[in-house]
Amino acid sequence: MMTLLVPLVPELPDILRVSAEDSQWAVTVTLLTAAVATPIFGRLGDLYGKRRMVLIVLSFVLLGSLIAFFSHELAPLIVGRALQGTGLAVIPLGVSILRDVLHRDRVGPAIALVSATLGIGGAIGLPLAAVISQFLDWHILFAVSGVLALAGFALVWRFIPVSTLRAEGTFDALGAVGLGIGLASLLLGISKGSGWGWGSPATLGTLIGGVVVLVLWVLFELRSRSPLIDIRVAARPTVLLTNLASITVGFTYFASTVVLPQLLEASTATGVGLGQSMLVSSLCLMPSGLVMWAMSPVAARLIAARGARTSLLLGITIIAVSYLLAVFLMSEVWHAVLIATLVGFGVGFAYSSMPTLIMGAVPSTETAASNGLNSVMRTLGSSIASAVFGVVLASQLVSAAGETTPSASAFQVSFAVSAVAAVIGVVFTVFIPKHHRPYRSASLPDADDRG
C-alpha cells in the first residue's frame, strides 16, 4: 500500500490533469492516515479485540481500492488512498496477535517473520507496480491491492482466533482526535515543506500547530483515566529509547527506497546517474526486501540468545556502515544493489527486534497500542527523511545535454546524512537498559535483554 503509487508518481499530473504539487496528495494522504490510524486501531484492538480491528482495517483497504479503481480524478483517488493508508495498522495488530495466540517459545521467531513482511511487500510490490504502470492501465494497481485485501480478510477470518486478552477502560475519543490533529499537522508540514517553502506561513503554521497540539495532548493523556496511549509507559527508558531508535531506522530505510532509485534512474548524460529504467531500478532494490525476510529466523535466534537490544544494535550498525560505503560506491549498478542489500540486512535485524523490546516493557493490555506508537515513530522517520532528501537533492543539480539530475555531491551528502542518522540510532540503542523491571503482566515476561 505504501509503495503502490511510487512508480506512477511522475505520470500522475498528466493522468489526472492536475499540477505536480497537487498530484503528490495521492501519496501524502496515505502517509498521514497511516500515522494517525495505526495507534488508534492499536488501542481499539487492545480494548475490543485485535482480530476484529484487523478485519475492519482490511475492509477499509478493500473499500479504498474500489474507490481508487473507479476514480479518474484526483479527489476520489485521494479518498481511496486515504482509506488504503489505514492498512499499515495491520502490522502492529498482527504482531500483538502473535503474543496472544502463540506459545511463548514461538513468539520471537513469529514476530521477526511478520516484521520482515514489510520488506517482502516492498521487494515484490515495487517491481510489480512498475510493470503495471509501464505496460498496463494504472487502475489495475488498485485491482491487485483490492484482491490482496480481500484475500487477507478471508484468511484472517478463517485462521486467526478471536482475541481473548482485552484491556479495561473505554476508548479515549478526544485523545484520538487530538493525536490525529497533532500528527497530521506535524507530518503534513514535514512532507510538504519543500513545496510550500520552509518559511511559508502554511509550513510554519502546520509544524508549530502540530507541536502545540501534541504537547497539549500529552498533558491531557497524563490526566486521563483511560488514555489512548499511556504516556508513563511510553516514557519508560526501554520504550522511549526504542521509539527514538525507530525514528532513525525509518529515516535510513527510506533513504534506500528513494535516494538509490533516483541514482539508478538518473540520466548518464550528466555523468552522475546510472541510466536504468523504472523496472530495472525496482529489481535492483528487490534483494533488500528478500534479505529482510531471509534474516528473520537469524534475527530470532540472535534475540533468543543475546536479547533484542543486541539485534537492534547490530542492525543499526550495519545500516551505518552501509551508508558510509555508499558515499564512495555510487558509480556502478552493482554498487546500488550492494548498498540496498546491506541496508536490508540491517533493517531486518532492527525491525525484528523492536516489537520484542517494546512488548517486554509494556503491560499485556497495551501491546497493540504500544506497537502502534512504535510504527508511528518509523513513519515519522520516513517523513523527516523525505523532507531532508528533497531539499538536499533539489539544492545541488547538474545539467548536460538537456538533462538535469542531482549532483554527485548531493547523493554523497544524502548517504552521509543517512550514516549520521544511523549512528544516532546506535547511540540511542546503547542506552537502552540491558535489564529492566518488567510488569507483572508484561506482554513478554521473559523478554529482558541478556546483552
UniProtKB/TrEMBL annotation:
It is found in: Cell membrane. PROSITE patterns: MFS. The keyword Metal-binding does not apply. Residues 1-437 form the Major facilitator superfamily (MFS) profile domain. The chain crosses the membrane at residues 23-41, 53-72, 78-98, 110-132, 138-159, 171-190, 202-220, 240-259, 279-300, 312-330, 336-358, 379-398, 410-432. InterPro entries: MFS, MFS_dom, MFS_trans_sf. Keywords: Membrane, Transmembrane, Transmembrane helix. It is a multi-pass membrane protein. Pfam families: MFS_1 (PF07690). Its main location: membrane. PANTHER family: BLL0718 PROTEIN, MAJOR FACILITATOR SUPERFAMILY MULTIDRUG TRANSPORTER MFSC. This is MFS transporter. It comes from Herbiconiux moechotypicola.
